[in-house]
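Notebook, student rotation project (T.W.).
Task set for the rotation: take a protein with a known small-molecule partner, predict the structure of the complex, and write up what can be learned from the model alone. Partner molecule chosen: 2-acetamido-2-deoxy-beta-D-glucopyranose. Sequence and SMILES entered below by T.W., checked by me.
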Amino acid sequence: MSSFKVLSMAALVAVASAHSQLIKIQGKAGSPASVGLGVDLNIARNCTTINPCQQDSTIIRDAEIQQNIVNECGRNEIEGNIDIGEKTENAIAAGAVTEAGPGQELTVTLHQVNADGAGPYACDLIEQGNTGIITQNLTVKNNVPGANGFSQEKFKDFEMTVVMPQKFDCTGASTGNICTVRCRNNAQAGPFGGCFPVKQTNKAAQTNNAKTIPTKSNIKAVLAQVAVDQKDFNDAVAANQNAGTAEAKAAAKVIAESNGQVSAAGTFPTQTVSVQLGAAATAPANNNGGNRGNNNAGANRGGNGAGFGGNQRGNKQQKRDILRALRMGN
Ligand SMILES: *[C@@H]1O[C@H](CO)[C@@H](O)[C@H](O)[C@H]1NC(C)=O
Ligand SMILES: *[C@@H]1O[C@H](CO)[C@@H](O)[C@H](O)[C@H]1NC(C)=O
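Predicted structure of the complex:
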């Protein structure tokens, strides 16, 4: 259902300008480097202009995620919604997924385009890859200098260190052993940042089981999402048609040479966001015990990317409500 997300966010993209990119992430020594999902390394890094230098920087807003406009990795100007699954598979194919085991320190190179791409950045983990479930917060060391996402730095690269937890269980992507790490700052115009894939070293490729996939959906969220999607549908169709015009296509075709620069931190403070660490890894915990009557798969007509398959509460009334709402809405 990510295509619907792309449609509904198209109208928003024009007004967004975003101000940092995750251009290189190095985990275990000798393993490949990852690149931020949706980041195009061919785009110039020596300017602060929206076009080209901000085209691939990512904005990740909780409100947009909740409204089903984007997924948990947000959007950028070139692509709209960052399709985590697609980008991760592309990274696997390109041999560009860094590796990490428990406690591994990841060196994350962040390119700050302009003032509000500054720190502090906070990072978290999606152990199932792209389910929208943030399973743990991560420790960030050597944060990008800044306060409230602002500093006077521009077109400069910073290296921060993101530490993988002692306990985690990556189950994402086709290989079943890839997590997504997400980092974002606290700029009011943002938050800006991005996501990248990490392959778990102490775990072989595995095949997932549909019955053990957890869910984040509940009846309230599902119905709210269906209502928003239905309301937005006509505007989204129009935005999609506009995005196909020659002018819009030309604007999206932004390729310039990369010119990364690394420099010392500026005079802004280096802060650390206080987060709660050590949440139990929630990966493939099967919460569906006893919930055998849940036949909602296939009833998903309302544009619901999260799917209805994992009704953790096994609540029959809840299922009836969902099905009734879908029937009324369609
Ligand atoms: C930025 O880098 C590109 C590619 O190296 C170069 O063509 C361009 O002149 C540079 N622009 C500025 C403002 O330095
Ligand atoms: C991350 O830290 C924040 C701030 O302490 C907390 O509200 C949130 O629940 C934590 N998330 C997880 C997944 O532990």
